[in-house]
Amino acid sequence: MFMVKIGSFLLLFLCIVKGAFGQEVQRTDSQLADSLCTLTHYYLEVERWDSVVKYGVLLFEEAYNQHDWHGNIIEAHVALGMAYAHQGKYELAMSNLGQAHQNATTSRNQQMIQKAFNQIMQIAKDEQKRLVEHRMNILLLVVGMVALAIICSLFFALYYQKNRLLLALVRQQREVMERESQRERRSQVLADDKKRELIAQLETLMKEKQVYCENLLTKERVAEMLQTNRTYLSQVINEVYGKSFTQYINDLRIEEAIRRLDRPDNRRALRLIGQDLGFNSPTTFNTQFQQRTGLTPSQYRRKVQQLTGSSEEEMGG
Fold it and tell me: Which of 44, 46, 62, 127 is buried most, with the most CB atoms less than 10 Å from its CB?
């Protein structure tokens, strides 16, 4: 640092002498250029790029005034090229190297320019790599934060809504059964008396005698009870209820299962309830019940007990 101060002082002194005596002191120009070159190289080594640009420009101007096309002017261009590259001004850097190359006449100058060119290219590559890594890190951070926010939102939403949704399913199922019951009571107007009579007999057979609880109930057996044929029976059930025979029977069984499970005092095992209603296995009973209500029989019974307990607490309060 001490040498830099001395160089700066000498530079100032030489500028004063040159301004005072002009062309009478010819050696002053050479000394001034040498001082500028020394300062430029020093700041280049300590990587103070603003100072390199400052003294490099002065060195270029002094060398240009001296018509020194192959010495200090090349040094100035190379130093400016390095400084501009470190400042991110790559167009200016390459422009200075291009001008240095045009004036280079010795192998030493060409090697110096080639070395500077390689360093500038490496600087550009390192900067590009750093920018890509920085952008990738930001992208990964943003994606991670978004994913974490989505997961947390879903977790809390599911956690707080699960019980509420199950209770809503029970209430909704009761409302659906009530609407279906009302539609059945209103009944559909049949195209002819024969269909109306057949439906009346079928509902009597199912609702009053609960034939659907038979374990091995078939379409042929029901048609025989109604004194009709299986094809006509299927057609009428499909036209009136929009269901197949099997769906019609299973829906009646599930409706009865819901009625039984809605009674809090019903403690009968679920397996036995399924058997009572004509299901061949607990698995079939569970599957049909869940398809209709969205809950398994055991889940439905627990929710009914919760609702009943809540109602009793409200009445007690």
Answer: 62
What is the spatial distance between Cα 154 and Cα 180, in angstroms, rounded to a whole number?
A: 35
CB 256 within 8 A of CB 210: yes
pLDDT per position as a tens digit, 220-244: 999 999 999 999 999 999 999 999 9
Spell out the long-range contacts of 298-305 with Cβ–Cβ below 8 A and sequence spacing 24 or more: 298/270, 299/166, 300/170, 300/258, 300/261, 301/261, 301/270, 303/166, 303/167, 303/169, 303/170, 304/170, 304/261, 304/262, 304/264, 305/264
What 3 state SS string does 213-271 have? HCCCCCHHHHHHHCCCCHHHHHHHHHHHHCCCHHHHHHHHHHHHHHHHHCCCCCCCCHH
Apex 245 CA angle, 192 and 233, nearest 5? 35
> How would you classify residue 210: left for phi > 0, otherwise alpha for psi between -120 and 50, otherwise beta?
left
Domains, the chain: 2-127 (1.25.40.10), 189-312 (1.10.10.60)
* Residue 21, both tokens: 């005596």
pTM: 0.43
Residue 88 contacts residue 127 (beta carbons within 8 Å): yes
pLDDT-derived band at 84, boundaries 50, 70, 90: confident
Highest mean pLDDT out of 55-69, 125-139, 163-177: 125-139
In whole angstroms, what is the distance from residue 187 CA to residue 195 CA? 12
CA distance 174 to 182: 12
Type and span of the H or E element at 25: none
> What is the C-alpha separation between 74 and 35, in angstroms, rounded?
16
**pLDDT tens digits along 146-161:** 888 888 778 777 766 7
Instruction: Compute the distance between CA of residue 99 and CA of residue 93 in angstroms, rounded to an integer.
Output: 10
